[in-house]
């Protein structure tokens, strides 16, 4: 049977275009409306049942289900975790495209790459392709709404819509780089986590915050890697580490297509702000929290042409991988070293010669 199948398929694969295979491949280098992304998520789970699980963890203001893909290999040991969300800002279409690419890459890589296999055994990846679903769908509605940024909840007195979800988290909420006017693009909402989308992340991540080594939130544009904090008067306790890891990621990005990404806190390289999810995550003691501002640097802005999806994703993948690998190795190589040291001590204690064990 295997041979028959192989015999039939090899010529088909060798003759592209002669016959179309039964299911159209997902095109990772196009922007997709929400329905397509949801279908893709379901397909990922079907195609990789042992590795991918859809987890529903909240509702949007308009009652749409917020879901993530949990991706990891089975392990007896308690696992650590990596967070990645895309599409918290509706108009930043390259971000959801990146989350889809990232998922595809790690699912392809682990089969042949022992390092990725180890990372997926020690850690689960929690990837939300579109967090602000209502806003994303609104940005797809027509040309006049293409640049919508916020969610779609109505303001306190009606007549205006939308809270900037990346100003709504409980991190120095409402203090700097925000507006209390609901018609503003940086309206921070009625109070900290007043919005269901910000609540979903807060409760999901907050309920297992000690598991998360890394929190990556993906935006565009500007070619920046932002570290906490957005408030100019607070400095992350591991600021030096964040900057070093961020610079390593920027170098990894640069090596792919020569794009310069600038690393720094938001007040240092962009503008001061408060209530961001990145700052909130760092305040929960998640050590490595970064905002990615993907391409470009202003030529097309939010309307990045589709022919730049592939290079943007390729370079950002290597940047993200640098951070994730650092987070992994810091935790797991350390643990392995500690285990080895313990074994060494035990061997010495029972009087076994270690001379030939190195
Ligand atoms: C969402 O669902 C709740 C509970 O069913 C309902 O009360 C509310 O009106 C719905 N909101 C919208 C915007 O449809
Ligand atoms: C930061 O601290 C200075 C000095 O105390 C103060 O004047 C300033 O208002 C603070 N900045 C913010 C954004 O709170
Ligand atoms: C990238 O940054 C480096 C160092 O800051 C600079 O020398 C180089 O000109 C930059 N390249 C581009 C394309 O902007
Ligand atoms: C933006 O990128 C383009 C192409 O890489 C470069 O020519 C230009 O100088 C950059 N502009 C800024 C403001 O960095
Ligand atoms: Zn953004």
TrEMBL record:
Residues 1-20 form the signal peptide. GO terms for molecular function: metallocarboxypeptidase activity; zinc ion binding. Its cofactor is Zn(2+). One of its GO terms (cellular component) is plasma membrane. GO terms for biological process: proteolysis. Residues 30-327 form the Peptidase M14 domain. It comes from the Eukaryota. Keywords: Carboxypeptidase, Hydrolase, Metal-binding, Metalloprotease, Protease, Signal, Zinc. It holds the Pfam family Peptidase_M14. The active site is at 293 (proton donor/acceptor). PANTHER family: CARBOXYPEPTIDASE O (PTHR11705:SF19), PROTEASE FAMILY M14 CARBOXYPEPTIDASE A,B (PTHR11705). Belongs to the peptidase M14 family. This is Carboxypeptidase O. It comes from Cyprinodon variegatus (Sheepshead minnow).
């Amino acid at each position: 049977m295997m041979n028959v199948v192989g015999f039939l398929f090899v010529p088909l694969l060798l003759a592209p275009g002669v016959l179309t295979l039964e299911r159209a491949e997902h095109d990772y280098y196009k922007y997709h409306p929400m329905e397509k992304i949801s279908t893709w998520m379901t397909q990922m789970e079907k195609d990789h049942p042992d590795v991918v699980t859809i987890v529903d963890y909240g509702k949007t203001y308009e009652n749409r289900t917020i879901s993530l893909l949990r991706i990891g290999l089975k392990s007896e040991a308690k696992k650590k975790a990596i967070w990645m969300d895309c599409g918290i800002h509706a108009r930043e279409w390259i971000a959801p495209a990146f989350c889809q690419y990232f998922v595809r890459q790690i699912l392809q890589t682990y089969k042949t790459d022992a390092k990725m296999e180890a990372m997926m055994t020690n850690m689960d990846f929690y990837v939300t392709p579109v967090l602000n679903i209502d806003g994303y769908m609104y940005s797809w509605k027509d040309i006049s709404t293409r640049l919508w940024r916020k969610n779609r909840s109505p303001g306190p007195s009606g007549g205006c819509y939308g809270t900037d979800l990346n100003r709504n988290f409980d991190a120095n909420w409402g203090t700097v780089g925000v507006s209390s006017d609901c018609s503003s693009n940086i309206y921070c909402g009625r109070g900290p986590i007043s919005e269901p989308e910000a609540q979903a992340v807060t409760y999901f991540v907050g309920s297992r915050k000690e598991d998360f080594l890394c929190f990556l939130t993906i935006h565009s544009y500007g070619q920046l890697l932002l570290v906490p904090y957005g408030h100019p008067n607070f400095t992350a306790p591991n600021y030096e580490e964040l900057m070093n890891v961020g610079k390593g990621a920027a170098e990894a990005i640069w090596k792919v297509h020569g794009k310069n990404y600038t690393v720094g806190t938001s007040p240092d390289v962009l503008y001061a702000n408060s209530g961001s999810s990145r700052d909130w995550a760092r305040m929960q003691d998640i050590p490595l929290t970064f905002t990615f501002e993907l391409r470009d640097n202003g030529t097309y802005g939010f309307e990045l042409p589709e022919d730049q999806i592939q290079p943007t994703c390729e370079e950002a993948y290597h940047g993200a991988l640098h951070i994730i690998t650092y987070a992994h190795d810091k935790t797991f190589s350390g643990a392995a070293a500690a285990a080895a040291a313990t074994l060494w001590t035990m061997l010495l204690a029972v009087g076994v010669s270690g001379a030939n064990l190195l």
